[in-house]
Amino acid sequence: MTQDWFEIPEIVKLTGLSKNMIDYLCRTKLITPSRMGSRGRGRGKTRRFSFGNVVQLRTYAELLKQGVSVKRLKEAQITWNNYFNSADQQSPPKRFLMTDGERIYFCRSEDVIEELNKKGQFSFRFIVDIQKIKDDIKISKAA
User: Fold this and answer.
1) Does any domain span residue 2?
2) Is 104 exposed, middle or buried (0-12, 13-18, 19+ CB in 10 A)?
3) What is the pTM of this model?
4) Could you tell me if 73 and 59 are in contact, meaning their C-beta atoms sit under 8 angstroms apart?
């Protein structure tokens, strides 16, 4: 499989992040380009990003829109890098991240949620269908 590389102008279009924000995320090491230009790091060097990098940047953009601070992104980074580093076009990372605007959660399965800001703290999700309870009560009362 040939690797498709993305450069900053295309990433700006795909993510909605500004060039300055992408530069900032690189400087703070929230994202590391998968490939640098032929002469290594430095001013004016072309940074190339993998598909997984672009997925990660787009995710950052969405979380930033929801009020998550860059500091919180940094806290969650170590845990979720494991998911994004293996992402490619054929096998993207798991499907859902959730936020309350402060913490970031990863839906590992239908029943397990992992808080990424707490180094992998797991929670369990239980859903109570209140409409079903109301319907059951109505049926029981009618009987």
Assistant:
1) no
2) buried
3) 0.66
4) no
